[in-house]
Structures are given as structure tokens and as C-alpha cells.
Write a structure and sequence with these properties.
Elements: H1 2-13, H2 21-25, E1 43-46, E2 51-53, E3 61-65, H3 72-92, E4 95-100, H4 104-114, E5 119-122, H5 127-132, E6 146-150, E7 156-161, H6 168-180
Parallel strand pairs: 3-4, 4-5
Antiparallel strand pairs: 1-2, 1-5, 3-6, 6-7
Helix pairs in contact: 3-6
Amino acid sequence: MKTSTVLVAAFAGSASAFAPPSVISKQSTYLNLSVGESAPDFSLVDQNGKTFTRSQNKKPLVVYFYPADSTPGCTVQANAFQEEIQSIRKEYKADVVGISGQGAESKQKFASELGLDFSILADEGDATRKAFGVPKAAFGLFPGRVTYVLDKNGVCTSVYDNLTDAASHIEAAKDALEEMKPAKKEGFSFSLPF
């Protein structure tokens, strides 16, 4: 009886592992910045030596944390954001920053290899990753891959946590940005009865 109780408890506790990603994307994971909370402020240097400060940004912002520069999954993810960066800027009036723990030189090389048009920020020492509470992945062996979408005031509107499907982060971000867009007002129309 004890064995079956333990197995049921263990299975029930991990039921979210079987939930579709869309269900998990709106929920907070352990120690994660939650939807509705203000994102911590940070100032980090990008691949061009320019300092990006979150609180000085006055438009919606996609903040994606990735494990490491120039790795296969992170390259796929960066390329996916690069393919959509102009659309994100034009359609949603938003911007994108990628963050990982490597230094500015590594960022410069990675951005140059991929021709990135958006900032990838050096979080040496992982202080910003820790401030956001990004969970580690694969039993704590790797830095996690989590994408946050912040509104123009820095309030988190979406959290997407998926280590293995790096390319899926762009669609999750665009879906969240789409939800933030104001509803289009219908124009005045008048038709004559004849």
C-alpha cells in the first residue's frame, strides 16, 4: 500500500510534464518571474559594447535566456529571433534581447557569425539570470532556456520555458505580443438606405 501511495504521489506531482506547452507557458516554474510581476532591472553590455538597461526601455520587450553562445540549440533560437526581428519591431513596436553567461567577446563572435540585429547581452556571473529566477534544466546540469515577454512598463505578461525546442520560443513570444496589442477600433461607417 505504501508503494502505490508513493507512486501515485510522484506521478501526480509530475503531471505537468505531460501538459501541452501552451498550458505551461502561462504558468510560473520554480523561482521564475511570474506573470503579473515586475521584471527586475538590469544593465548589461551587448555584443557591440553598448549597455542595455531594462528600466530605460519604454516598449514591450522579449527577454530570452539561453544556455550558451554558439551551441546548436542556441544558434537555432537566435536565428529564429533574427528572422522575425523586423516584424516584431514593426508590428508589435517591441524589441528583443537574448541573455547568457558568456562575456562580451563571445557575444560579439556569436552575433557576427549569425548577423544578429538585436542585442545579446553578457551576464557574466549570471546575476540577471538569478534575479529573474531562471530555473536550471536537465536536473540542474545546464542553464535553462526561458523566454519572458514584458510590457512597456516591465511587467511580465508571459513565461515560456522549453529547453529542447529552441525554435518554439519565437512563436510563444509573438503569441504573447499579439495578446498585448490593443484591439483595433472599427472605423465609422455609414450606408445609405438606397
